[in-house]
Amino acid sequence: MGGLSIKPGLVLGSWAAFIGADDNAMVMGDLVLLDRELNPVMAKLRSAGFEITAVHNHLIEEIPKVLYLHYMGHGAAAQLATALRAALSVSRSSSSTTGGCWPAGSPAAAPPP
Description:
Number of domains: 1
CATH topology: Alpha-Beta Plaits
Number of helices: 3
Largest sheet: 4 strands, antiparallel
Shape: globular
Number of strands: 4
């Protein structure tokens, strides 16, 4: 950004939080997406019944351009997780083999009990 390297951990943190029961859950989260990924991911989420609650940026003049998409969904936990995974599958960030900047499949460590 402006000739300065920004460490990914500072601004590229996507997350999802589930609450409720297996058959009646809610998920809320925030996805960090490349500009060109926004519409395809948002379309997948909306087609699965997710609400898009915000789209915004945290940085200006960054390369590559990234946007933050906040979402919320209700339903069976497994269906929510499957729909979220399907939405991520249309982004480059879903796999390190496709050149994504922040690959899925590398979950954060669980907090201590």
